[in-house]
Amino acid sequence: MKAIECIRSIAESLYGIHKELIKLNNTHPVNRAEGKDKEEKPKNTRELDPSKFM
């Protein structure tokens, strides 16, 4: 029974942290979506030019 109580306590703590992170994400202006160029891809998804490998 002690293990169940421990797991329940961990779950409640994680839920509280989750709610606080959602609040922080919604209030922090840097994290708000901005209209970026749709042509600009993130660096890790750009197509590679094979001629640059050699």
Structure description:
By secondary structure, the protein is mostly helical. The chain has one domain (1-52). Helices cover 48% and strands 0% of the residues. The chain has 1 helix and no strands. It has one helix spanning 2-27. It starts with a helix and ends in a 27-residue tail after the last helix.
Topology:
Layout (H helix, E strand, L loop, with lengths): L1 H26 L27
Descriptors:
mainly alpha; 54 residues; single chain
Taken together, the total number of domains comes to: 1
- Compute the number of strand runs: 0
Share of β-strand residues: under 5%
Uncertain segments? none
Supply Rg: 22 Å
Helix content: 40-55%
| Element string (H = helix, E = strand) | H
Shape: elongated
Structural class: mainly alpha
Mean pLDDT rating: 76
Counting DSSP H or I runs of 4 or more residues, the number of helices is: 1
User: Largest sheet, if any?
Assistant: none
**What distance lies between the first and last C-alpha atoms, to the nearest angstrom?**
63 Å
Oligomer: single chain
Biased composition (Basic and acidic residues): 31-54
Region (Disordered): 25-54
